[in-house]
């Protein structure tokens, strides 16, 4: 097999092996996909400052995210239906993260349950919560995460209704999965995917049992989300959830300086500057472009993480140099998982680590903590006058 040298290699294999419905689900953004595209292209606008004749021995990417040691400040983002990209996908990704020494975040919408992941790993993982209309569900989910020893709660705030995702609508993506004739044909040609799927007993969403049982009309994903998630989620409820959980709280989906201030007021430990990988509000700013104003507003008072668009260690370095303490990757690890299971996630992490380390050295830095704006040339409009 050809050597994996970049995330794009994993994406190519992933695409070849995965049924179209699930590939599209991962690879799409909402509506025109402008934000999805700009999440990546805006990283390219930032240039790195090459520095020479600097001692580059003894380099280290190790750091901390919310006080927890990490081999590099790159966590695996919560990704719904990871277990449909590869059988037992959440367990495999969690194992890869544990081996590498980075945090794994389990989505509420995972196929493997909180307990499945806890039983098959030893490092504490983070649990991502979606707030359902059923408030008892929230209480139970938080208790389950506590019982499983989760070391942070990641509360996602940018998806109470689903962004319009045209590919998913056209593909008829639904909960539970609906099989149209063309889908069956597609599945039949992706035999590797089918074969490994047969080896697992986990074919439903392990964390939301009871919340999908009632739905019998094969709703589309967006109809299901609109019926199930609580549109009333507000800052008062966020505070209630913080108190219920009582541990480290990360608020995910912050893209505006005013919301970052609200997150600070509510007492969160960290925020994730994120537009959900361009899957929610199309036309919103890319995360990396939103970062400077958020750093200015709260950067010295709360830990700031960033995701959306990271496809390389260079992207990670740019986010850190602009002030983020940590980053999350979503699709970059899913490509690896879909391409070659646990090994593929390890490969994705290895690629990103190598790129981060090499870039750091060529920028004349030895520690991720020393990265700063001095390493970058950033277009003025990143700090610009948005009216
Ligand atoms: C297929 C897919 C499913 C996702 N599911 C969730 C989810 O269940 N919960 C959540 O908070 N974010 C979810 N996200 C968003 C990711 O956590 C993350 O914000 C995003 O993927 C970052 O962008 P990137 O993919 O460009 O790295 C999902 C993203 C993708 C691609
Ligand atoms: O697809 C997503 O981005 C996501 O977060 C989600 C939302 C509802 C159901 C499954 C996944």
UniProtKB/TrEMBL annotation:
Coiled-coil residues are none
Binding-site positions, FMN: 78-80, 107, 128, 130, 156, 252, 274, 307-311, 330-331
CDD domains tied to this protein: alpha_hydroxyacid_oxid_FMN
Mention any Pfam family matching this sequence.
FMN_dh
GO CC terms on record? plasma membrane
Cofactor names: FMN
Query: What protein name is recorded for this chain?
Result: L-lactate dehydrogenase (Cytochrome)
- Annotated source species: Litoreibacter albidus
